[in-house]
Design brief:
Radius of gyration: 24 Å
Helix content: 25-40%
Strand order of the largest sheet: 17-16-13-14-15-12-18
Strand content: 15-25%
Largest sheet: 7 strands, antiparallel
Oligomer: single chain
């Protein structure tokens, strides 16, 4: 029996991994990529260092409108420890943990080593790379599938793996082709949206704080959705960014796109201190002022802005602070409302939310339940995780499963 012929559409994280495992399982594997080199999101991730994986995994932090149980099965299909071992021993990229963030990076801190290592392993296993080839459609044929490639000749195969990514960071080559193909082939789709994207604020309330960064706990709450994250927060010239902001941004984005009234509410705990701790710090201490007490815990400009937002005179001596003023200031410091007007959308989004329903695929093989011989993996599926290597873990796990599934003799 001749080897199965598998075409993988998209040489990003999930696609390259799928090709590696399809070829490793004995399939004649072709990896088709619209750009010249592929893996461009790998190259720009982690500030050019590539956060390959999280150091530890919390499955509950993934977001999906599909079955959480199916999502867990997919995440567990390739345990974190085995993924780490694969990168270090198969790809040849040693990983180191950044203790502060609990993220795993290549020891070289060069994202290119990850991308190039994966492509080298794919070629070593016999994968043929067709670069600068635009896939325009995937259609069933009498003996399997035909991949239509624009001006290039069509490719006939036994199985197709869709690993084209979503709509995020379009300048890397993501244009939603795989999502359109999946929908055209009859799959149930959950509405797509920009996820892990910076938030925009038209209000001038905090406009002067651009460049200030600090760790916070931020919460986003809307009609039926909520998210809370602790981590870095950055004031930008147009709004807010940083890991904590990105991790809750999907609630804001979906509130905006749905036109919810009232819109999602953002609140911030600006320090680790809670109500009781702040109440204690705002008790009279000699001639200490409100500003003196608050800036002991926060950057000066932010302290002044938060005091102003609370409507309390910054030069008020603590002994003269009224009870209602103290309560309002504590409320602002512990649950301060953060004004927002929009978000930066797909242009700056780390990933795409929504996509093909997880109910549409067999979680053991990633094969479509509607189209035999078609496999889906990575960002086209309805799931994403927080900042910190979770989305690469998803790509690696689902890509591996799709490669192994597509290579199996029918």
């Amino acid at each position: 029996m001749s080897a199965r012929r598998v075409v993988v559409v998209g040489a990003g994280a999930a696609g390259t991994m799928a090709a590696i495992f399809a070829a490793g399982a004995g399939a004649e594997t072709i990896l088709v990529e619209r750009t010249r080199d592929g893996g461009r999101k790998i190259l720009i991730s982690g500030g050019g260092r590539c956060n390959v994986l999280p150091a530890s995994l919390d499955e509950t932090r993934f977001i999906t409108d599909s079955s959480p149980n199916t999502l867990r099965k997919l995440v567990r299909s390739w345990p974190l420890a085995e993924q780490i071992k694969f990168f270090e021993h198969e790809v040849g990229v040693p990983l180191v943990e950044e203790s502060e963030s609990k993220k795993l990076f290549p020891a070289s801190h060069k994202a290119r080593d990850v991308r190039d290592g994966l492509l080298a392993l794919a070629k070593q296993r016999g994968v043929s790379l067709y670069s600068e080839t635009q896939v325009v459609d995937v259609v069933p044929s009498e003996n399997g599938w035909t991949v239509l490639c624009g001006i290039a000749p069509p490719i006939d195969c036994d199985a197709v793996i869709i690993a084209t990514g979503g709509l995020s960071v379009p300048n890397t080559g993501s244009d939603g082709t795989g999502l359109r193909i999946a929908e055209k082939l009859g799959h149930v789709m959950h509405a797509t949206y920009a996820a892990l994207t910076p938030i925009v604020a038209s209000s001038a309330q905090y406009a002067s704080l651009s460049g200030i960064s600090l760790p916070v706990t931020i919460s986003a709450t809307s009609q039926g959705r909520s998210a809370t994250a602790t981590g870095g927060f950055l004031f930008t010239h147009i709004g807010y960014s940083g890991p904590s902001v990105l991790d809750v941004s999907h609630v804001v984005v979906r509130s905006r796109t749905a036109g919810e009234r009232p819109p999602a509410r953002l609140t911030v705990r600006w320090t680790p201190l809670g109500d009781e701790e702040w109440t204690e710090r705002l008790k009279p201490r000699g001639a200490r002022t409100v500003l003196g007490a608050v800036r002991a815990e926060l950057p000066d400009r932010l302290a002044a802005a938060l005091i102003d937002a609370a409507g309390v005179p910054p030069d008020r001596v603590l002994s003269d602070l009224q009870r209602d003023e103290r309560m309002q200031l504590v409320e602002t410091l512990v649950r301060g409302v953060l004004p927002w007007s929009s978000d930066e959308g797909y242009k700056k989004a780390e990933v795409t939310g929504g996509g093909v329903s997880l109910a549409e695929i067999d979680p053991r093989t990633m094969e479509s339940r509607r189209q035999p011989g078609l496999y889906l993996c990575g960002e086209v599926l309805d799931a994403f995780g927080p900042i910190g290597g979770y989305n690469f873990l998803w790509a690696w796990a689902t890509g591996r499963a799709a490669g192994l599934g597509a290579a199996r003799p029918m």
